[in-house]
Amino acid sequence: MGTTHRRTSTLTGAALVIALAATGCASGSTSDETSARDRAAGPIQPGPNRGAEPPSTQLDENPPRDLRDRERPLDESMTDAAADPLSTFALDIDTGSYTRFRDAVSRGYTPPADEVRTEEFVNYFEQDYDAPSDGLDVHIDAATLPFQPRHRIVRVGIRAADPDHENRSGVDLSLVVDCSGSMREAGKMETTKTALRALVSSLDRDDRVAMVCYSTEARLALEPTRVADAGRIFEAVDSLRPMDSTNAAAGLALGYDLAADMASEERMTRVVLVSDGVANVGETTSGGILERISTEARAGINLVSVGVGIADYDDELLEQLADNGDGWHVYVDTADEAERVFAHDLTATLAVTARDAKAQVEFDPEQVAGYRLIGYENRAVADRDFRNDAVDGGEVLAGHATTALYDVELRDGGGRDAFVTATVRYLDDSGRPVERFRWLTIGDCPSDLAEASPRLRQDLVVAMLTDHLTGGPWSRWAGPEVLRREASVLPEILDGDRDVAELVGLVDRVTA
Predict the structure, then answer these.
(1) Who wins on pLDDT, 345 or 325?
(2) Do 200 and 233 touch, CB atoms closer than 8 A?
(3) pLDDT (0 to 100) of residue 338
(4) pLDDT tens across 219-276, in order?
(5) CA quadruple 482, 488, 492, 496: dihedral positive or negative?
(6) 65 burial type by CB count under 10 A (0-12 exposed, 13-18 middle, 19+ buried)
């Protein structure tokens, strides 16, 4: 990677915005940091020749007639790049959709198509992005789709800086535990206890834990207790028992009250909800619950929602709670998954590296006929709001990565300039907006998938799997046999990755 050159400037009436530009298929780069500028003059053409300029966020409402008159993308699911060259979405680090799918397949069935979220499947797996020294950075690469030679699979990766384990602040956790009757089914309560024990074991002695147990009503199960007194915390966990109805709103209200009482400027305060998501008394829809969660998130108290139990499970509610709580949604299906999520010092990664993070990807309509963002259906942001920091984005925790995949249809005779530019914008610890971006040219991308990054090939298989599960547009060109073929090479090129080996087995089962 080339040397990074930096410069800063003070803007009158505008916050300082940092931009990092790069070129090359594997994100090789020369880069620069610049201040934001007024873009009212019109769109900037992407490409290495334009210098270190961030992409435009202003749509051209009247694209050149020669582009309007060209043949539209072959696939009606794709967006015409001449009419709309920008794709904008809030970042998402959730993984729950994949582990719920894995749990369902292990029990002999697959979850409904509307619970399959591609970005959460992709987020579950290891990526190969370098961690920046601070904030967020962008990675971008691409390769030819094996079943559509005119198309490229483009991977846009966002990586957060690693957590500072040595200097992390103290943590206060308010655990909100579902103790309703549905938690006695399918080992949900035992899974919950395993997860909570792993979480407590990962904490420092000076951290504090409080716990709420809710059923028909909510009750205090443990007053704020330092982890130095871990035996008392474990006793409270062991005492949890399934009871009656489910008043999730009451449980969260008491949990946030506890969190607010514990909160201080010197420490991180988080609410951790463990539930199957079913609510049948009190406020039973997401609307009333979300307002309180959103208010507390703005005050710095984030939410982690942990789903358990394949039966009687409300996937949508738990995902929405995490999104509105500026947090993270995971699903725990096994003791191993509890260890994966909680035992590796989860509290260090709960530090928020970037707030209100959004990505905007710009396609050059001279080179791109159409594109399709694979996933992120419920995270879309209006293009005009990319630089509107009053519009909510996503929160990215320390050490986390998130990935967006695009199916891109190229025009004939692509040029040497960038055909795609990806920009991430977020607010740093001081509330200052920061932008970093990278671009990609067609000539730098391998035409043979075998030459692509092994992790990009992994992500393509994951996207093909979700397309298969949802009856997506790729199914007309790539049947189950193509998916199995592409999956079969992964164990060799990613030797030793148990998650990838497990993925291949799941592909075999759902395509049998």
Answers:
(1) 325
(2) yes
(3) 84
(4) 999 999 999 999 999 999 999 999 988 888 899 999 999 999 999 888 999 999 998 8
(5) positive
(6) exposed
Residue 435: enclosing H or E segment and its boundaries? strand 433-441
Angle CA 468–472–475, to nearest 5: 65
Nearest of 39, 40, 1 to residue 20 by alpha carbon: 1
Do residues 155 and 143 lie in contact, with contact meaning Cβ atoms separated by under 8 Å? no
Residue type, position 491, single letter: P
**410 has pLDDT over 50:** yes
Task: Judge contact between 403 and 123, C-beta under 8 A.
Answer: yes
pLDDT digits (tens, 9 = 90+) for 424-448: 999 998 999 999 999 999 988 998 9
* Euclidean distance between CA atoms 385 and 359, whole angstroms: 11
Q: Of 505, 459, 474, whose CA–CA distance to 123 is shortest?
A: 459
| Count of beta carbons in the 10 Å neighbourhood of residue 145 | 20
CB 137 within 8 A of CB 18: no
Give yes or no for a contact between 174 and 285, defined as CB atoms under 8 angstroms apart.
no
Helix (H) or strand (E) holding 397: strand 394-397
Give the single-character DSSP code of 216. S
Helix (H, G, I), strand (E, B) or coil at 19: coil
Secondary structure of 338-381 in HEC code, one letter for each residue: HHHHHHCCHHHHCCEEEEEEEEEEEECCCCEEEEEEECCCCCEC
Amino acid 346 reads L
Distance CA 446, CA 152 (A): 10
Residue 40 CB contacts under 8 Å (≥ 6 apart), including other chains: 58
d(CA 43, CA 257) in angstroms, rounded, equals: 48
E-strand ranges in 235-282 read: 268-275
* Number of separate helices (H) and strands (E) present in the chain: 14, 18
Whole-angstrom Cα distance, residue 499 to residue 503?
Answer: 6
Q: Which residues pair with 407 in a beta bridge?
A: 153, 372
Rounded Cα gap, residues 454 and 474, in angstroms: 21
Structure-token pair, residue 436: 């970093």
Higher-pLDDT residue of 112 and 350 is 112
**Tokens in use for 270?**
């988080």
How many Å apart are CA 361 and CA 438, to the nearest integer?
10
Segment holding 191, helix H or strand E:
helix 188-201
C-alpha to C-alpha distance for 404 and 427, rounded to whole angstroms: 20
d(CA 147, CA 482): 8
Question: Distance between CA atoms of 98 and 119, rounded to whole angstroms?
Answer: 9
Structural domains in the chain plus CATH codes: 4-93+124-163+352-446 (2.60.40.1230), 171-349 (3.40.50.410)
Tokens of 262: 């514990």
Spacing of C-alpha 341 from chain mean position: 15
- 208 membership: H or E segment, kind and range: strand 208-214
